[in-house]
Amino acid sequence: MKRLSELYNINDDRLIKSIKINSKEVEDGDLFVCTMGVTADRHDFIDEAISNGASAIVVSRDVGKKSVPVIRVENTNLELRKISANFYDYPCDNAYMIGVTGTNGKTTVAEIVYRLLGDTCAYIGTNGRKFKNKHFSMRNTTPDVDRLYMYFKEFIDAGCNTICMEASSESYYRHRLDDIKYDVGIVTNITEDHLNIHKTMDNYVDCKCQLVKHVKDDGYSILNSSDKYFDKFKKEANGNIVSYGYKDSDTLKIEDYTLKRDKTIINFRYNNKIYEVISPLLGSFNVDNLAASILCLLCKGIGFEKIVERIKKLKQIEGRMERMPFVSKYTVILDYAHTTDALDNILTFLDMIKETRIITVTGSAGGREKSKRPGMGKVVLEKSDYVIFTMDDPRFEDPNKIIDDLVSGSDKTNYERIVDRKKAIYKALDIAEAKDIVLIAGKGRDDYMAIDDKYLPYCDYDVIKSYYEQ
Question: pTM of the predicted model, to two decimals?
Answer without folding.
Answer: 0.88
